[in-house]
Amino acid sequence: MMLSPVKCTAKRSKSEPVIHSLPEGIMHDIISRLTLKDAVRASLVSTNWRRLWTCHSNLCFDSPTILNREYGTISRSSSRRGRRRRRFIRRVDAILESHSGTGLRRFGITFALDARHTEHLDRWLKFALDSRASEIAVNLFPVFYKGFVRSYEWEDAYTLPSHMFSSQGASYIESLELVFASLKLSRDFYGPLKLRVLDLQSVHMSEGDLELLLSKCSSLECLRLGRCYPVLNLKVQKPLCRLRNLSVRGCQLQVMEFSAPNLAKFEYSGQAIPITLGESMKPTEATVTLLGYDDTLEHVFTELPKTLSHVETLSVNTCINTEVVGFSNCLMKFTHLIKLEVTVSILGDSRIRNGILRLVSLLEVAPLLQRLELNVSAPLALMHVSCLSFETNDVCLVLVAFDPP
């Protein structure tokens, strides 16, 4: 008895689901687009999917994925936190034991671990390096800490293996992100590295190690440094010719010297310090936040143009003391500046306006300026400065916003 084509198709679909008969290349592509949690669930469908899951290219372990808990639900009980850490470690170990180590592209750990868990973290990083992962992200910042990391807390921070950058797998890393860790280079570190992105946040390392690391990263395109300690003098002698984006925030620097001829975007947040970025550097966009309670307007007009003379779009956060009159040095010009956003915090005696009137110099230092946005934060006693006005035909749009604290 012959079955109709329709009945044959129906019979085959019952015995063998169509998704199981897909070409292996398509199944690999489907698995690679799933999150780690969904990939594990998919492995329960069949032995084929279970085999493909062991080649998942994205292994990112965090609390929502491994423990089904959001970051903000951390317990104040140290014993309960300890149990969760142990459960997290067991599950990560189990997943890595099942993974084949092939096809790994991104490897990430986001969990509050420290020096007590060095054995596990070393083993996980070795797995990532042996698997030739091109992106590695390690975020160990404790979610119950707020603000800056105090010096004594670095004693508890995890220290990356000194031989990490000397291993063969390090040559495959293109992106490295570290948060709340200590980094020390081994004496036999020779490089070079193929890093394109380096992001160090709350990382404890010497300025010598940082300079040595950067000198071996000739392919670096993006560098982000935040609250790194105890780096004071950041000087990189070797030109970073491919560097396009540079961000340095809250690092308590005293001097910064870079040579980045192709830099396009620059961001700095910290004290007013000497910044040298190379003679041939021509960034088109910059954001500068000068921290502290001292008058820093003169630094904006006399020092920043030396570094950012070719910038076209500039955002500046600065402080003005009403009692400071004039400038002690000659004003420099932003010869290419078109768009300027200035956020000013006004301090000092509310009865004195001379310091505030120096803002008029904004139009003098930027002859090509087309748009000026001025945001002023001042005590209520100083709100009468709204009578201050700029008269010019060159600026197409002037927006003045007063934001009392």
Automatic annotation (TrEMBL):
It comes from the Eukaryota. Pfam families: F-box, LRR_At1g61320_AtMIF1. Residues 16-52 form the F-box domain. PROSITE patterns: FBOX. InterPro entries: At1g61320/At1g61330-like, F-box-like_dom_sf, F-box_dom, LRR_At1g61320_AtMIF1, LRR_dom_sf. PANTHER family: OS01G0553400 PROTEIN, OS02G0105600 PROTEIN. This is F-box domain-containing protein. It comes from Triticum urartu.
